């Protein structure tokens, strides 16, 4: 632990500030946490912070949230983790629930419908950009061996196909890719493979039980965080439980991108559509609870986790499947677009994000403004 004792009030203030200003997803969160903990306050050594990033990326669920919880745990143990994590999550959660009331209302104003349709049209481009940004690091992990690179491509293709076709069963494909890589790298060594007992869907659940189950899958069973949660949620929210239309789901994903804090806040918008504010709060609580548990119970063992050969092999296989799944999620998202002008917005967003490499938040805001213009011009937006 650090030599000076950092007060819980200071942790609440600093982590709350990052949660309020953390637009742009995990890269922005990591940068802000590093500036605070390493550069400005010198609470952590650079190497220790980088080790924290590596360790939290080994866990399922939202990695940047787990990093926020871990850094606060590093300063004040369990109490710090609970306070820091809660304050990091709270600003974005309050904002996304407030926007859900506006954008997912039964009869919203025309300009709101236009803004939602415009921002939603850009969401598939955000998924493509998220996937392409992960490719270099994931591909470098497998090394130069031709067979390993061929397996990488196979895992990525499997993840993409699963995201397009299987919906909630995607998590089984991610786990299978990881287990396959362990088996290949074992090369005859007698090693016990980890077992993941995953239940992708429980159609007998109803009401808040179903909301909790969908949120649990997002928080505890999704490797890679971010956009890999989209295919996990879409089938349940739209097709299985009929909480939302395809268009409303796109709106929820867009809201998760334009609000500060972790992208997993999207699950709160889904919970709101299912059961109002209570459903949104329940979904957020269930989705984020595993992050707190993983860190509070396991932070002392992070070094051992990082050095475990089987864990590394598992992530070498699951990683490219996650990349493929994120890219594949763009297909059903794009299929949800119902108006011709939305495809123009999508094409522009792809150029802006992937070719020009510009920011996600600005892209979604511009797409939303284009939707407002389209609504004012009398184009269909609902």
UniProtKB/TrEMBL annotation:
Keywords: Cell membrane, Membrane, Transmembrane, Transmembrane helix. Its main location: membrane. It comes from the Bacteria. The chain crosses the membrane at residues 15-33, 81-104, 110-131, 152-179, 249-275, 281-302, 314-334, 340-356, 361-381. InterPro entries: Chr_Tranpt_l_chain, CHR_Transporter, Chromate_transpt. It is a multi-pass membrane protein. It is found in: Cell membrane. Pfam families: Chromate_transp. Belongs to the chromate ion transporter (CHR) (TC 2.A.51) family. This is Chromate efflux transporter. It comes from Kitasatospora aburaviensis. The lineage of its organism: Bacteria, Bacillati, Actinomycetota, Actinomycetes, Kitasatosporales.
């Amino acid at each position: 632990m650090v030599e000076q004792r950092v007060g819980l009030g200071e942790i609440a203030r600093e982590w709350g500030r990052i949660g309020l200003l953390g637009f742009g997803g995990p890269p922005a969160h990591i940068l802000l946490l590093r500036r605070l903990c390493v550069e400005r306050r010198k609470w952590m050594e650079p190497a220790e912070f980088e080790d924290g990033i590596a360790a939290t990326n080994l866990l399922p669920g939202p990695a940047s949230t787990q990093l926020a919880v871990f850094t606060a745990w590093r300063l004040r143990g369990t109490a710090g983790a609970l306070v820091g994590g809660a304050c990091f999550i709270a600003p974005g959660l309050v904002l996304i629930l407030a926007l859900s009331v506006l954008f997912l209302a039964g009869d919203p104003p025309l300009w709101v419908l236009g803004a939602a349709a415009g921002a939603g049209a850009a969401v598939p481009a955000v998924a493509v950009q998220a996937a392409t940004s992960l490719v270099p690091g994931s591909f470098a992990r497998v090394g130069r061996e031709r067979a390993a690179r061929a397996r990488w491509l196979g895992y990525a293709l499997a993840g993409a196909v699963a995201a397009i076709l299987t919906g909630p069963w995607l998590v089984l494909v991610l786990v299978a890719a990881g287990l396959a890589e362990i088996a290949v790298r074992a090369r005859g060594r007698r090693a016990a493979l980890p077992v993941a007992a995953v239940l992708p869907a429980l159609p007998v659940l109803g009401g808040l039980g179903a909301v909790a189950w969908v949120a649990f899958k997002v928080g505890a069973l999704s490797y890679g965080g971010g956009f890999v949660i989209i295919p996990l949620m879409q089938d349940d929210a739209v097709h299985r439980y009929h909480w939302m239309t395809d268009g409303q789901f796109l709106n929820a994903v867009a809201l998760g991108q334009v609000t500060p804090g972790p992208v997993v806040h999207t699950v709160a918008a889904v919970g709101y559509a299912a059961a109002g504010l209570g459903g949104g709060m329940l979904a957020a609580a269930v989705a984020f609870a595993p992050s707190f548990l993983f860190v509070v119970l396991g932070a002392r063992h992070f070094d051992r986790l990082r050095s475990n050969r089987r864990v590394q092999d598992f992530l070498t296989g699951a990683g490219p499947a996650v990349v493929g799944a994120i890219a594949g999620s763009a297909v059903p998202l794009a299929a949800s677009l119902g108006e011709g002008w939305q495809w123009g917005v999508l094409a522009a967003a792809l150029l802006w994000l992937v070719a020009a490499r510009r920011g996600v938040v600005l892209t979604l805001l511009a797409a939303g403004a284009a939707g407002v213009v389209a609504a004012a011009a009398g184009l269909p937006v609902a």
